[in-house]
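Entry:
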Amino acid sequence: MARSLRARRGEWTTRCSQEWSSLQDDSRGRATLARGFRQSDSRTQAAAIGAAKKGGVVVSWCTVRRHLKRLNASYRRARRVPARPANAHQQSVMRRALQKVRRLASFGRCDLMYGDESGFSLAPCVPYLWQPRGKTVGLPAQSHHQRQNVLGFWKEDALEEQQLIFSLHKETLKARHFVQAIEEKVLPCLRRPTVLVLDNARLHRCTLVESKRASWKAQGLHLWFLPAYCPHLNRIEILWRRAKYLWLQPQDYHDFNTLTKALHCIFQGVPKNYSISFA
């Protein structure tokens, strides 16, 4: 009887492994996978255990989790991704171009800078935290009507230390803010020809910016626009993510003024107190 039970359990694990592999190979399957193997969903647990019972095997949710770990699965936070896949050829071409610019920058021939915008509100990105057992660290819920927008230009320099040029705005960012930041903060800091990497946001592609490109190019600033759906090629996104999930502390969300001061302190402290290494 024990041998028969082990055989049926082996059939179940084999079937589970095959289903896991098929889900990993399919884009829609990955979404199903994300929904289907959440530990917090009691219906998922019941479905997994019920499927095992139909095969003649009685398993617990602990057994299901243990088998998923053997399949090299882990329980972690999901990430948002672009709505559509990027063009593989365009992405490859841009990667090679950026590598060439980084190589030239390492010899002091030019500078490489990344530009982007981000927003911070009193509704924090809730991170995973180490907390005492039986006690939960709570972040107070706040309204979304106040938002601190940040316009940033981050220079990745192999010869000198990194540099962040930023400005904070309570109002919605417009093209005039972008142009003003470049002409008042970026252009005066140029030491050599500079490539500024941007996404295809409307305020980067508007008529006002296009009318300024020739003048900026004459002063040594060249705008490079990333292919669609390639935000991961803009390295300033890493800085925004670090600020939201790592550098901002729970007490920084006490009120809007506290959040603004914390953001100013963080961005002012790049790279002396807050830095990113690509080694």
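Residues 2-70 form one domain.
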